[in-house]
Amino acid sequence: MSGNVLVINSGSSSMKYQVVDAESGTASATGLVERIGGPGGRVRHSTIDGIHDYGCEVADHAAAMQAMTDAFTEHGPDLVALDLLAVGHRVVQGGARFGRSVLIDDRVVSIIEDLAGLAPLHNPANLAGIAVARAQFPHLPQVVVFDTAFHLTMPEHAYTYALDKQVAAEHRIRRYGFHGTSHAFVSRQAAAMLGAEPAQVNVIVLHLGNGASACAVRGGISVDTSMGLTPLEGLVMGTRSGDLDPAVVLHLLRSTELGVDDIDALLNKRSGVFGLSGRQDMRDLEQAVADGDTDAATALEVYCYRLRKYIGAYTAALGRVDAIAFTAGVGENSAVVRALTLQDLGVLGIELDPVANESPGKTAREISTADSAVKVFVIPTNEEWEIARETAEVIAESYGS
Ligand SMILES: Nc1ncnc2c1ncn2[C@@H]1O[C@H](COP(=O)(O)OP(=O)(O)O)[C@@H](O)[C@H]1O
Ligand SMILES: CC(=O)OP(=O)(O)O
Ligand SMILES: [Mg+2]
């Protein structure tokens, strides 16, 4: 179904938005409202005419939504002329309740509220965005697209933690997985690049942004992913630790003055490559490594070694791997991370072509040698387009096309 969808991705301190045509993926405007609730608020609104970047007081999510509509009024395109089909919201945690996207109503909102305890860093911000958008665009249908939905197909042995069964059930403790819109989009693109239908191929997707996760996709279906109950498990990230012996938390509680919230902040905001080297941004980290900084070199090695381990694990989980796809900011841009991660993996049938890996590009491309049994791709993700497509699908089903 075609039509323009306003896609909203609300974070705790920022709000990203796009107007995207659900069929073609063409974005007529993209924007970011930053530093919500703090000093130094900014709006960055991009249209085909150019980029408008300016300071703007943004007290809360209502003010952020207002700043967005003001940007459209002032710099275009005209939201009315765009004839929006719907608003599509990214919601990070949909729990085991939502295996697919849904039309928003009060009942859906209350279920997402109920799930906020499982994603305290993400769901409250997503809910704030939904509340404001419903008030601001009361005439438009609104749809939620969950990060978790794509992973609800995981088999029980992949989503189950080996915990006391009753405790786990009572507190809904299991692995949910995140970045589902990206894994769905990129795995489909990978199948197309292999010249096959998604149902025919097995792919490992490595989504490496600030948050990072790996996903084993068998025949178009997620069978395992590295994030778990929350987006903290798995890969080493910009500021998140990823996998850790859970006893580390107990040790810190027993032997330091740190409280639960301090440890939460430590693991989510002051760990990962930032915790190891003082640098969160992969570009800064790479520069520091080139300058001879040994902490930065260790951080990069830890980051890539964790990735290698997941590639090995997911090769075993899938049995046969047709392609590995790198995506998101680091995956799409860092030749160094790709090379270090895949170094000497010939034993798994993975042969990187160093020249193709180093050639910069903005489009989907193959970076493995002609002989590599497992193809290696760089595929730019497009979570907003995937959200717009899902939104249009729900609208077509609910109202007819
Ligand atoms: N040219 C580049 N080389 C290496 N890393 C890059 C490059 N461009 C962006 N990145 C990295 O991508 C990461 C952000 O990825 P992104 O997908 O935008 O994250 P998120 O959506 O989670 O905020 C940052 O660590 C940034 O350093
Ligand atoms: C779920 C998650 O980690 O999202 P992000 O990468 O946007 O932080
Ligand atoms: Mg992202």
Automatic annotation (TrEMBL):
What keywords were assigned to this record? ATP-binding, Cytoplasm, Kinase, Magnesium, Metal-binding, Nucleotide-binding, Transferase
Q: Which family does it belong to?
A: Belongs to the acetokinase family.
Give the protein's recorded name. Answer: Acetate kinase
Of the GO CC terms on this record, one is: cytoplasm
Binding locations of substrate:
R90
Enumerate the Gene3D superfamilies for this protein: 3.30.420.40
The organism's superkingdom is given as Bacteria
What reaction gets catalysed by this protein?
A: acetate + ATP = acetyl phosphate + ADP
The residues the record assigns to binding Mg(2+) are: N9, E383
Site (Transition state stabilizer) residue list: H179, R240
**Which terms under GO biological process does the entry name?**
acetate metabolic process; acetyl-CoA biosynthetic process
Q: In which pathway does it act?
A: Metabolic intermediate biosynthesis; acetyl-CoA biosynthesis; acetyl-CoA from acetate: step 1/2
Q: Which HAMAP family has this protein been placed in?
A: Acetate_kinase (MF_00020)
Where are the catalytic residues?
D147
Top enzyme class of this protein? transferase
Major place of residence: cytoplasm
Listed EC numbers: 2.7.2.1
Q: Does the keyword ATP-binding apply?
A: yes
